[in-house]
Design goal:
The protein is an alpha/beta fold. Strands 1-2-3-4-6-9 form a 6-stranded mixed beta sheet, with helices on both faces. A 3-stranded mixed beta sheet has the order 5-7-8. A hairpin with a 2-residue loop joins strand 1 and strand 2. Helix 2 packs across helix 12 and helix 3 packs across helix 11. It is globular and about 55 Å long. The N and C termini lie far apart (43 Å). The mean pLDDT is 91.
């Protein structure tokens, strides 16, 4: 397994996947996303598993897509075909986790931003540390929210709250996330992984085949139209990434100044 992603298996029916780039933000580079996808595909084939925990670090889940990589793309722009390929890496990562039949639990400590939040809502459940903050800044950076996240977010918290998060970029703390239905349990800061693993072991004590069948039914009932609703979000991402507003947002972020948007 690649060095940025580790799979821990102390129980035959429970696995924990930890992704950690070693930096303070645990940002999602294309390389890291491919590794997280590989872990999901590997575990999806393991029919002994009843539950899987996905965790970042005890300090931060993820600050989202790596903006240094975004800056590189602005300086050396890829063609449209390459942009479309790159835009699908995150979508494929989230879909790989959606397609796991075992129960999946995101352990969220600290910031859970952008693509990190899109990944978290792709899992069945979310355990949040008291210091967790969910934040979707894509619109404020001149981009749409892609990776199939919008319909899953709306199914969890409803259209109005979904718009507050995805369109208005409101930051949501752990207790608010719990009251909205975005977080399923809130635990002391730095303990989300341990709490998620304890919950996973509870699931592993249930009849494994019946558990998987029930989870599959619930997934189909709650998210049957997600793919149709988000079919074009990757191409919308490519389109928005070509705008002057997006270039300005990245430059302003790197220069630590307010952006000046022009609607171009």
């Amino acid at each position: 397994m690649p060095q940025n992603v580790q799979i821990h298996r102390n129980d035959p029916r429970v696995a924990t996947v930890v992704f950690d780039r070693g930096g303070s933000g645990n940002a999602l580079s294309s390389e890291l996303m491919l590794e997280i996808t590989e872990a999901a595909v590997t575990l999806r084939r393991d029919h002994e598993l009843s539950a899987i925990v996905l965790a970042g670090t005890p300090k931060v889940f993820s600050l989202g897509f790596d903006l240094n990589e975004a800056r590189t793309r602005l300086e050396d722009p890829p063609d449209i075909a390459e942009r479309r390929r790159l835009s699908r890496i995150g979508r494929d990562m989230c879909r790989a986790w959606v397609e796991i039949e075992a129960l999946t639990i995101a352990a969220v400590d600290g910031w859970c931003v952008g693509g990190g939040a899109a990944l978290a809502v792709a899992l069945d459940l979310r355990v949040a540390g008291e210091d967790a903050v969910f934040y979707l800044p894509e619109i404020s950076r001149g981009l749409n929210l892609s990776w199939g996240a919008v319909p899953r977010l709306v199914s969890l918290i409803g259209p109005a709250r979904g718009k507050r998060m995805a369109a208005l970029a409101e930051k949501v703390d752990a207790r608010t996330a719990e009251s909205w239905g975005l977080a399923d349990r809130v635990v002391p800061a730095g303990t989300a992984r341990q709490a998620a693993e304890a919950w996973a072991r509870e699931a592993a004590a249930l009849p494994p085949v019946a558990l998987r069948m029930c989870l599959a039914q619930a997934e189909a009932a709650g998210h049957a139209f997600d793919r149709a609703a988000s079919a074009l979000d990757a191409d919308q991402y490519v389109l928005s990434s070509l705008t002057e507003d997006h270039a300005e947002s990245v430059q302003a972020f790197l220069e630590r100044r307010p952006p000046a948007y022009r609607g171009r």
